[in-house]
Amino acid sequence: MPHLDLADFELGPVLGVGTVGTIYSGKVRTDREVAPAAWALVGEDLAIKKLHPSVSSDELIQARFRREMLILERLQHPNIIGYFGGGSCENQLFYVMQRVDGGTIKDLIESSGAFSWPVVVDVARQVSSALQCAHNHSVIHRDLKPGNLFLTRDAQVKLGDFGIARDLHSADLTNQGLTVGTHAYMAPEQITGDDTISGKADLYALGCCLFEMLSGRKVFLGENFAQLFEQHLRSKPPRISQFVGDVPKELDEIIDQCLAKSPEDRPFNARAIQGVMLQIGEDYDLAGLPDPEEADTDPAHPARVKAHDVGASQATERGRQMLEKQIQARLGGIPREPIPMWRLALILAAIVIAMLVAMLASQVAQ
């Protein structure tokens, strides 16, 4: 990815503030000449993450921020926040990424409560695909939680915030034996600071997230981190079927497997979880198919295609459609992602050409 100059971007409202950085809405400046790398981003919805000035001189924090940039650069995937490049301005590191305007899974749980199980199946399909990509590149997220699952307005899930991710190709920037992560979603081996931690820790966190999405509550309800750690380490997790009566047994079982204390007892990898979600989509007819009344009059209509005949992204489409409606309701009916400027320009050009052709045809007819 290219080195970017912060002066080529205009910072907008603050989107979020973390312990080491602030995220701003951003766009490429059009009131001055900018570098080609920045100009290529004109029309994109951007967010810019800047390291706080108060911590910019901390070498360890700088190293972690640079590591996050390197990880995002490697992980190009539809369900991972897009990364466009970064740099340094007056000793402040920054990077430019995709802006996602649909909120987070956490926001939606807090505003709307528990999700229906078809929605959770589609979210799980998307998140497990993102995790498999990360694990294929030897990256363990270590902080998977509803607040780090971002949503576009049309219900595409984007895994973000790789600030404490572990890159197995490089030395760990966390002291050996130190616990990192969010207490409610941490696997037992993450709590004990196991130096052989693997992607199975992310699968445990995914199980915690799916349980919370379905029930509206966390797996364990300890009042402080000590109680939570003890529960994650020793208490048997409840089954989601105890709280949600209509959840498919396949979904109940895979969540329970994710929450196994031993990494060896969890699913083989994230792809295996994705496969379960696709199978549930097929078995329970979750493919997002058009109006069945139209299909009745057309034997070749797509609505007559069975779920196993559609692509993987369509197998759980009904859940995505339900999630999109929830997002729209929370945002007050805000439309989908804005149309890029280049596409608007093409549309306007086509309209102008059509008008000119019509005028010439009228003159010829006269």
Strand order of the largest sheet: 1-2-3-5-4
Helical proportion, percent range: 40-55%
Straight-line N-to-C gap: 57 Å
Q: How is the biggest beta sheet arranged?
A: 5 strands, antiparallel
The Rg value, from CA coordinates, equals 23 Å
- Total helices: the number is 12
- Low-pLDDT segments: 291-310, 335-339
Overall shape: globular
Quick one: how many beta strands?
Answer: 9
H/E series, N to C? EEHEHEEHHEEEEHHHHHHHH
The chain-level mean pLDDT equals: 87
Strand content: 5-15%
**Structure classification:** alpha+beta
Task: Give a short synopsis of this structure.
The protein has 366 residues and is α+β, with helices and mostly antiparallel strands.
Question: What would your notes on this structure say?
Answer:
This protein has 366 residues and is α+β, with helices and mostly antiparallel strands. The protein is 40% helix and 13% strand. It has helices at 36-39, 59-74, 105-112, 117-136, 188-191, 200-215, 225-234, 249-258, 270-283, 292-296, 317-331, 341-365; strands at residues 9-17, 21-28, 46-51, 83-89, 92-98, 139-140, 149-151, 157-159, 166-167. The strands form three sheets. A five-stranded antiparallel sheet has the order 1-2-3-5-4, covered by helices on one side. Strands 6-9 form a two-stranded antiparallel sheet. Strands 7-8 form a two-stranded antiparallel sheet. α4 packs antiparallel against α6 (200-215), α4 (117-136) packs antiparallel against α9 and α4 crosses α11.
